[in-house]
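Duplicate of #3305? Posting structure anyway:
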């Protein structure tokens, strides 16, 4: 945040400090924030930094604390401990209307007998913005959410996707510094939800507003986000770019919740150069050491199904890990074919190949599996 140097003379101490640039101040900062409801710890001393202009998703299973965190930022609940800052300003104790954040909920809460334009303009009416400016800003929002020509339609006559866009426009018309979105797409059908994911991302990039989006859908978070905050049990498990969480999960929970993973439990048996050798039943598998394991430590190997190559015996020479297995099941998924391959008694691996370019291995076929060094993540046995 700031840096300095000092020079000490006989009687004078001079300190130079570099002023904090506004770009360095996070849009949202949580420091040791905790919240308890009765005997339930909803949040446990959470630290969070949301960069300005970021699309950040709070991701996790039901009851993990993500909606509680959003409500604390919005001011609908008060934390028991810790501090919340919006663009560097402490907002502890401030009501929602004093925080310069706005919220879009799963239920859009539109006024059914008001028109689209009247619904969007409502926050400006509350702030007593003049009619001319209201018309101009409502027009800007209609263009932003692609609802031009529908300004006189009643809210009760809108489709689900249109209602979602109106709710979004109403939340943005007041030009909040931060927009909070609590699973606003959950009520939409799959096709419309996927279309609205792209629309939300487009709108966020066009405005440059900080979006904090709550979801339990990992594919939704991967599609939309600059950063993902993965939560479980009231705690932040991992924060980072989608690719980082997918390719470099730090826990077994993270590897399971984001995408699919083959998890092989074993113990560290030794080393092969800089790699660990992990014994899984009768198998010995190499993987990079990112946590400083010792021989005898429990370890879990995580390998994504699409990163496992399949071929005839001898065709995968050169890969650090090669196993022979028998195809036990073949599942056609349209663009993918999924194989269940038994590599040892009671140990199966899931393998995914392109339906267009992969080979359709028959059930009962003996094949070779292999993967590159960076395809496996070695995790602590603690889940």
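Output from current build:
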């Amino acid at each position: 945040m700031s840096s300095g140097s000092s020079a000490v003379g006989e009687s004078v101490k001079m300190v130079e400090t570099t002023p904090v640039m506004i770009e360095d101040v996070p849009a949202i900062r949580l420091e040791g924030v905790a919240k308890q409801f009765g005997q339930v710890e909803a949040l446990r001393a959470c630290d969070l930094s949301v960069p300005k202009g970021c699309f950040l998703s709070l991701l996790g299973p039901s009851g993990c604390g993500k909606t509680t965190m959003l409500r604390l930022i919005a001011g609908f609940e008060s934390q028991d401990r810790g501090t919340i800052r919006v663009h560097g300003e402490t907002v502890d104790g401030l009501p929602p209307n004093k925080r310069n954040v706005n919220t879009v909920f799963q239920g859009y809460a539109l006024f059914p007998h008001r028109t689209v334009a009247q619904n969007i303009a409502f926050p400006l009416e509350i702030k007593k913005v003049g009619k001319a400016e209201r018309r101009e800003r409502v027009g800007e929002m209609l263009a932003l959410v692609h609802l031009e020509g529908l300004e006189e339609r009643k809210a009760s006559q809108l489709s689900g996707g249109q209602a979602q866009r109106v709710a979004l426009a109403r939340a943005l018309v007041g030009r909040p510094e931060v927009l909070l979105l609590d699973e606003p797409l959950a009520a939409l059908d799959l096709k419309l939800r996927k279309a609205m994911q792209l629309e939300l991302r487009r709108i966020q990039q066009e405005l440059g507003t900080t979006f904090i989006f709550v979801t339990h859908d990992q594919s939704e978070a991967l599609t939309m986000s600059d950063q993902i905050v993965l939560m479980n049990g009231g705690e932040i498990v991992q924060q980072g770019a989608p690719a980082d969480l997918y390719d470099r999960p730090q826990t077994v929970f993270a590897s399971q919740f984001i995408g699919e993973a083959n998890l092989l439990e074993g113990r560290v048996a030794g080393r092969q150069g800089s790699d660990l050798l992990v014994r899984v039943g009768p198998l010995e598998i190499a993987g990079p050491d990112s946590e400083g394991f010792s021989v005898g430590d429990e370890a879990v190997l995580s390998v994504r199904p699409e990163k496992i190559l399949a071929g005839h015996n001898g065709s995968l020479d050169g890969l650090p890990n090669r196993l022979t297995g028998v195809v036990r099941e073949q599942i056609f998924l349209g663009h993918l074919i999924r194989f269940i391959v038994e590599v040892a008694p009671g140990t199966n691996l899931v393998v995914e190949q392109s339906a267009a370019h992969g080979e359709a291995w028959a059930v009962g076929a003996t094949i070779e599996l292999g993967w590159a060094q960076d395809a496996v993540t070695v995790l602590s046995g603690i889940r």
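Confirmed duplicate; merging threads. The radius of gyration is 26 Å. The chain has two domains: 26-253, 260-380.
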